[in-house]
Amino acid sequence: MPDRSSHRAEPVHTHPDDVPIETALAALADPVRLQLVRELAGSAAWTHSCGSFRVPVGKAALSHHFAVLRAAGLVEQRDQGPKRLNRLRREEFDTRFPGLLHLVLREEA
To answer: TM spans, by residue (predicted)?
Structure first.
């Protein structure tokens, strides 16, 4: 029987259409999550693995932040070999909350 202990569970994704505005705003209010979203916005889809982000948190906290972003419909993840790759669900999120990402991704004045 194959050893399944090394297999990760597939991440659960929430479609932006199913996200209340309060959930979206709460996800974007955290500075670490906002940094993750900004880094994803500045790169091509599926090019950032979870360990490639420049954020000041450990693996467990990073995992939590990605779970919050997935639950808010902001991020989609997929496993490719040992890495978990990410993409910002910008188009879907913009359809649900027009202009919100544009506002939070603006450079600070």
So the answer is: none
